[in-house]
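Re: magnesium ion structure - here you go.
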Amino acid sequence: MPDQSHIAMTAAAGSVGDKAKRGVSVARQSRIAEITPIIARVGSRNQLVVKVTSEDGLVGWGESGLSGREGSVAATIKHFASFLIGQDSRNIGRIWQETYRSQYFEGGRVLTAAMSAIDIALYDLLGKRLGVPVYQLLGGKQRDVVPSFATSMAKTTEGLLKDIKLLVDEGWQCVRTYPGSFDDKDVFDPWSTLSKTAEELIAIRETFGKAICLGVDLHHRYTVAEAASFCAMMPQGTLDFIEEPIRSETPEAYASLRRMTDIPFAVGEEFSSKWEAARFLDAGMTQYMRLDISNIGGFTEAMKVAAMSERHYIDLMPHNPLGPVCTAASVHMSAAVANFSWLETRQSPAEALGYHNDTLFPKQVKMVGPNYVVSDEPGLGIEVDEDELRKQDPSHIEAPHLRRPDGSVTNW
Ligand SMILES: [Mg+2]
């Protein structure tokens, strides 16, 4: 059955003794009774959705972001449940600290993906308990709608121009290409793809003029030298942002690339803490913060990274490639921060990925043209049909293992 469990708590007048008793009873009702990870095949990917239930039967939903390693994250969530059950679900900040710091080896993407899902679910739960949308818990709305940017995955210039015309006609102001140029044997040749991608982007800019924001996601497939050559192929003003040209373990490598190009960088979807984000922000090595609420540590950590980015006059451009739970959480966060440009969408007319299945998720954040409409319903404003979700057997999914033409490993 769809989750219908949102209940607003109402305060009633009473004596000091009554209030004290009521406080104890609310604390008891708010205790976490169950934390359940569910892995389900939705569209072309698996989604890891987490259900947190409190002792009074309220339910909160969250989603984890570490696509492709859902089993590891689910095991971590089950471990966290061993010490979170019985705790007050309203103590979200404290729970974040305890899950991050309760072992000697703090942090890491598996742990923070698990923490993210739990943190999002706790916010959903608290919003339902108080009868308010999550954005109210984050300081209220700073914008009426949340604009999105869309992606064309087309592999030819004609396909890209067709997709982008469709998007521009439907109102999109910001578009991105994704040059997934590898063959059916998963061989990726950096040099031939660089020149092809450059020609495609030049054609898009010539066709659509200066009015659109145009980006490209290079999916950290290049070396510093290759990325620098690509940037040199871009006439001034062609590209508004270049996403992950290189891997992000070493901010100093971005500093090296920065010295060879003036194209803004968009980095951050793999970050799993404020500390990781700080190394890029403080060094000026990203101009858009691509944080992913399902990876970085949920609302608790995302709002801190948003504030750190605001200090550097950098807008969030959140990563949002998952399902309706992550999308709803990203929309509430995006509504509540001052520094925001566009939220990634994978629901545009140019993509049909099936991640937002409305049988499995009967209530979702609505889109009007390129804009997400911020829900005023309690919590995240979504419903999950748990029975249907559990019927979607997760299949083993592995991202392509790309090779360079000489057979050596390169990133997908
Ligand atoms: Mg990306």
